[in-house]
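Lecture notes, structural biology module. Today: joint structure prediction for complexes of two components.
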Amino acid sequence: MFPATLPTRLLAAFGLVVSVAACSSTPATTTPDTFSVWDPYPQFTAESEWAKTIDKCGSEAGVKIQRQAYDTTDLTSKVLLAAQQGTAPHVLVLDNPVVSTLAEGGVLKANSEAGLDASQVSPNLAAAGTLNGQTYGVPIGANTLALYYNKAVLSAAGVDPASVKDWDSLNAALAKVKAAGKKGITFSAIGTEEGTFQFLPWFWGANGSLTDLPSGKSALELWKSWLDNGYAPNSIVNNTQTTSWQEFATGEYAFAENGTWQLGNAKKAGFEYGVIPIPGRTGGTAPAPTGGEFVTVPVQNNKDTETKAGRIATCLTAPDKVLAADTALTYISAVPSVQQQQVSAQPELAVWVEAVKSAKGRTGDNLGTKYPKISQPLWGAVQAALTGAKTPEAALRDAQAAVK
Amino acid sequence: MRSRLAAWAFLLPLVAYLAVCYAYPLFTNVDLSIRGYTVRSFVHGGAPLVGFANYATVFGDPTFRTALVNTVLFTLVSLFFQYTIGLAAALFFARGFRLSATLRALFLVPWLLPLIVSASTWAWLLNSESGLVNAVLEGVGLTQVNWLTSPQWSLVAVTIANIWIGIPFNLVVLYSGLQNIPREVYEASALDGANGWQTFWRVTFPLLRPVSAITLLLGLVYTLKVFDVIWIMTKGGPSGSSTTLATWSYELGFGNMLPRFGPSAAVGNVLILIAVVAGLLYIRMQRRQELS
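The predicted structure, tokenised, for the full assembly:
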């Protein structure tokens, strides 16, 4: 028996040491005041400029920051669950079309109560966060859609990009590209919010109104004609904006409808590219929908906490801080004076600044929480028309009937 | 008395586990489905009881019919091919030949891959523009198929991917079932002069029936709730043509900026009900088998 007891004792002693060590490692002091910040930028690590900016804003407010990054599509449901459990983050960076939904759900604090100020921001960008006369949060920046083009493909087809001024000239350009043996245009018409986002510039460019979907039928007819004429690939029906970009990056396509955030990838594509605004049906720049996030303050049960969170949010959207974040995200700032700084530093951003100026919030026009109920039937209509299940007109009429 | 207490103590972990991981979520889901939740009432409470209104909404929605038909087609076709191909492969490997163990291990790869990987790979293969499958079809002189982007083919495409994913499971279970069939029965049938075909239908298949039944039942439950493969490949589209009850439930609850938890939970419960019915059928079948 004896040989067995020694190791047993040793083991017991070892266990004791470990447990004592474990006990002593837990801090005896109270935890410092830590504020949580949730954002949809998982691509930014703790070493990124964005994470550092958050920490800086935390220390300016005298608190520690715990940052948590989620995928955009996950963030809304995560926030709803957290709010239900009373554990909502103190500061929330949120995709702009969701702001009015969460505001109406009583999850977000209005700017007037949280001490935020969106008066510096261009009104067309702040509109997405405005509900019943109150604004919820401040946009951190904006992105929108425009047409990227491949210089080599266009010049081989004998198309001058400056000649694309309206839908007719765009169609003529696509016909020339196809005749030259290249592919015309790629975009995303997937059955999610992304599909509606990509469709809206054409829909609004045809003077369509989201409260009367059939009014924009010429936009859907345009898309359908591109498929029928072979100007656009069939894969658009299932393309996300990322897969559509990958198609453009093959160098086979003349045009791609895509966003500001692809600028970094465009430089890596290995061919010369340019950007033109999306033309309206009869000319001019079509209003594209605004993308980008709002920095918001969720409701807490403590006025002091909300005020402090408001200070952090204000700091994050302050002109000097926001430039770094917008540069990292390749966003256009929401503040006109910062936009000018961006253009003087990077002249190629000028076309995007113009696009953002004429852009329109999806939840604007006082649609607010009605927008998601319109957007879903709309992407369904786009898919039904493109796959030939319904005519564009019938598809939009049915979609309008489905809006409750 | 003491032994009684001990018995309860042994029972406690299981009961706690069942209550926390099964009963409570199920109860919550039923509760969600009979209340009229908005975003506000989800967060702040106070959603009114609406009885079966959510179910009425769901059943009245034209998508319900499509989703139900798609679910049935997807499940039955998947099960049929998974089982037949799995059984054929199991019979092939049961003969045991050089490197058969290695090859069998390779067959398990689809099962081991994370679903996001296999579904994305299939989405790439079946892409209209740059997919390998279409390149091959064109190479042998056939017309290209818009696998993921035409309403006629999208359900076929996701079913093919799901069959491929499900074969290894059938192979493994049926293979071990085959190992349990006594050698003597085969010897006897060989002595009686049965050919390969007769041996299969008269010996192997009947003796494999209990294993087949459980394989098919598990397969049914797995397939009914398949979500990832379809969502990654087609998002249930184009225009709802590959929507099943599982993807529709997710779409209602999380696929939109405005979550509709009530109808989403209602669809989920319908799905659970279908699976329970299948389970009950299996138990009845098994009981009858034990009696005979």
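Point to remember: The mean pLDDT of chain B is 89.
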